[in-house]
Amino acid sequence: MPKHFFADHEPNTSGRDFAVGDLHGCRAMLDTLLAHAAFDRQKDRLFSVGDLVDRGPDSMGCLALIGEPWFFPVLGNHDAMLLAWLMDQQGLNPGWLRYYVEPYLNPRNGGSWAQTVPHGARRNLIAELRTLPLARRAGRGGEQEFWVAHAEVFDQVSGEGLQERLHMDTPDIPDRKHYIGGFGGKGGWRDHLLWGRSLYSTARYYYALGSGTMPPEHHPGIPTTYVGHSILPPVSGPEGNSLLRMQSHVFLDGGAFHGCASGDPRYGLTLWCHTENRGWMVGGNGQIREVS
User: Fold this and answer.
1) 15-54 pLDDT, tens per residue?
2) Are 169 and 5 in contact (CB under 8 A)?
3) Is residue 238 part of a domain?
4) pTM score > 0.90 for this model?
5) Could you tell me the residue range of the domain that residue 275 belongs to?
6) Cα separation, 80 vs 59, whole angstroms
7) Total domains in the fold of the chain
8) CATH number at residue 58
9) Do the domain assignments include residue 1?
10) How far is it, in rounded angstroms, from Cα 165 to Cα 155?
11) Residue 272 in domain
12) Of 24, 78, 249, 274, which one is the catalytic site residue?
């Protein structure tokens, strides 16, 4: 299981801060975007919403990023399933992740590649994955403060003050079990951070209805929070290139692995520069377009 739930980062006073959507093994797409954005590995920082592995062509290449001093990922549900499976294979107790072991090798989750990882490398992977927190905060209290998590950091079950309580190594958060869409059953607040789709479901309902009022972009108790998990390519806005923003969450998962597999330009990897308030998406056809 992860060693820490939360990581705090001072403001970046010398460079820029970026956030990237679910990589899912699409390392080449990331390299393309970083080159396009003139990412400076000496000054800039890249925060990842997690799901480094599975479904795409280069999971190990994405895992290698964990060792880079400019790369700051959170744990995604696929990373958590991989960690649980590896721990179980090594005879280690995965703790609260124990329910993540069995579904990992389900073909729809794309984890079969992990069986090819040499046994001698598995303990190193466990150690690296255990360093990934569930949430990160950058620039606490400043104008540029933002959060990073995989799925959602706010819901009616966790309640107000989740951010401050997460800051503790042993968060005092009531672990009330509730149904979590996509998780396949009931889970606690940790599972919700990794799997929650309540905001995504709200957005789908609104778009299907075609009328009514969407929840506001901003929530007064939550800073800008970059998340992934739910595939939502930037298609809204007057020019059809806007990211979905709801309750201070900014959704970055553009379905990179779909783009990798099919060449479909509608799906791809999204890179957002928080410092400059601009972003880009590389589609499955290799073309880069600006997003807003």
Assistant:
1) 999 999 999 999 999 999 999 999 999 999 999 999 999 9
2) yes
3) yes
4) yes
5) 6-291
6) 14
7) 1
8) 3.60.21.10
9) no
10) 14
11) yes
12) 78
